[in-house]
Amino acid sequence: QVQVVESGGGSVQTGDSLRLSCAISGRSFYSWAGGWFRQAPGKGREFVAAASWKGEDTWYSDSVKGRFTIARDNANYKLALQMDNLQPEDTAVYYCAAEVNPITKELEYVGQGTQVTVSS
To answer: DSSP per residue over 45-62, as a string?
Structure first.
């Protein structure tokens, strides 16, 4: 059984930074990429970033490009999301997914989420 556990959320001020971490266990092989999604109150799920498990490719949404950086440990299936210059519109529950198709944004094995709140 695949387990995905996020950590590192919190409440910060505009312009601050946070680093989210994700630990994945339960399988020895993943096909596509690991990634992060978020969901703000009253809104749908939004793709944030993904990183290939098989190489160096990364993908970002336009809304976070240049401010967020995804990192991965391909050998141990861990992900991190460094979030800099946070803005109130980044407030959301952030979810880690062990399998993300970076083209279709399909995902599997999603964690419980961690809350990020940015106040102005």
So the answer is: EEEEEEEESSSS-EEE-T
Query: How many helices and strands (H and E) does the chain possess?
Result: 0, 11
Answer yes or no: are the C-beta atoms of 95 and 111 closer than 8 Å: yes
Per residue in 27-65, pLDDT (tens digit) is 877 888 999 999 999 999 999 999 999 888 999 999 999
First-to-last alpha carbon distance for the chain, in angstroms, is 40
* 3 state SS of 6: strand
Tell me if 99 sits within 8 A of 51, measured CB to CB: no
Summarize the chain as % helix, strand, coil (round to 5).
0, 55, 40
